[in-house]
Amino acid sequence: MDRSDDRGRRGAGGGSHALRGACEEALPGATVVALAGQEESRLGELGRTRGVPNLYNDWQDLVARDDLDFVSIGVPNHLHHPIAIAALASGKQSAGS
């Protein structure tokens, strides 16, 4: 990939620790620019320690951003569907983990 992709991540659990490094390693030029999660203290910690500037308590606010190319979905499997559909409907690629 020869251009920078901006990525958002829904879910601030354990999988989010590895997201930034894995994303940037697999896709050189990719930058995680937003996270969403319901645990405010955990979300703030991840934003600070991982250098992610935009933090949301509601996944819909993250998906509504018009500057994201990709949404990585890190919630329990049974919650993937509405997030993936919203991301795809707004023209973003998405993947669940």
Structure description:
The structure is a single chain. The protein has 97 residues and is of the alpha/beta class. It has one domain: Rossmann fold (3-Layer(aba) Sandwich), CATH 3.40.50.720. Helix content is 40%, strand content 23%. The chain has four helices and five strands. It has helices at 14-26, 40-50, 59-63, 80-89, and strands spanning 6-10, 31-36, 54-56, 70-73, 93-96. Strands 3-2-1-4-5 form a five-stranded parallel sheet, with helices on both faces. The longest helix is centred in the N-terminal third of the chain and has 13 residues, at 14-26. It is globular, with a radius of gyration of 12 Å.
- Look at the structure and give the mean pLDDT: 80
Main structural class = alpha/beta
Say what the CATH topology is. Rossmann fold
In the CATH hierarchy, what is the architecture at level 2?
3-Layer(aba) Sandwich
| Total number of helices | 4
Q: What is the CATH class? A: Alpha Beta
Assembly state (oligomeric): single chain
Shape: globular
The sequence of SSEs as H and E is: EHEHEHEHE
Helix content: 40-55%
Based on CA atoms alone, the radius of gyration comes out at 12 Å
What spatial order of strands do you see in the largest sheet?
A: 3-2-1-4-5
Query: How many domain units?
Result: 1
